[in-house]
Amino acid sequence: MSQVVLSIRDLHKIYAGGVHAVRGVSFDVHEGESVAIIGSSGSGKSTVLRCINRLIEPTEGAILLRNEQINTPSADVNEVRSRIGMVFQSFELFSHLKVLDNVTLGLRHVRGMSKEEANEVALEVLGRVDMLERVDAYPGNLSGGQKQRVAIARALAMKPEVILFDEPTSALDPELIGSVLQTIRGLADEGMTMVIVTHEINFARDVADRIVYMDHGQVAEEGPSSIVNEPKSDRLKKFLSSINEEH
Ligand code: ADP
Ligand code: MG
Questions:
Q1: Which of 3, 84, 172, 206 could cross-link to 144 by cystine, CB 3.0-4.6 Å?
Q2: What is the pLDDT of residues 153-209, one digit of tens each?
Q3: What is the pLDDT of residues 167-183, one digit of tens each?
Q4: Predicted TM-score of the model (pTM)
Q5: Mutational test site, ligand 1, from 15, 38, 197, 214, max ligand atoms within 8 Å of CB
Q6: Ligand 1 neighbourhood includes 25 CB (under 6 angstroms)
Q7: Nearest to 129 by CA among 185, 67, 79, 52
Q8: Which atom of ligand 1 is nearest to the CA of 46?
């Protein structure tokens, strides 16, 4: 088996109000692997990703990046975030910056690259997400799908060891979802290590190497992508049939 890039061990998160959102979650992500996290709204999926990227502190548990614990006071948050990319549902682009400058920002300020070096990297990753023609546009003039591809390029530019996606298509109009899923699928084919929280069960089945099903803050079932066709637990069966009813 290939090397473990990311290891989540017995993670708990109790929010200030007392909600125990994550209750002992553990899983590993191997080099080149795509892991999809599925589960109902409120099951704790975003909380897990936010703990990994240190947007919030877990109440208990360890997160290891290449065997080194990163949720400690001494681990440098900026370094962690440059090694673990994150793509959000709501894109989180700077509206006052052009596409190119959104992508170069981290390269210049975190990586300390010159403008020329940063532009070169940015153009390469914008080409990979098919956004080269819009480098001078402002985010307000892009479709949601284009915005999300820029956000993916921004994450890629930092050459992260793993990218976390939190429902990357759920804010998009249906006709724009395909281009973003295709971009993510391309990254999976290239061997990018990824954790993808998604409602798109067919996408998860087709693209992910492994699926983690979360329910009420716990991993209720985990396995190869075939588990969405042959779920073992009643909880996953019920979740999958509730999704089918929606469509
Ligand atoms: P998911 O991403 O699976 O929808 P979340 O991780 O967003 O789930 O939320 C898990 C639980 O934690 C929910 O009950 C949610 O209401 C609660 N929660 C999320 N964020 C906060 C917060 N900042 N403060 C208090 N409770 C929160
Ligand atoms: Mg969420």
A1: 172
A2: 999 999 999 999 999 999 999 999 999 999 999 999 999 999 999 999 999 999 999
A3: 999 999 999 999 999 99
A4: 0.96
A5: 15
A6: no
A7: 185
A8: 2
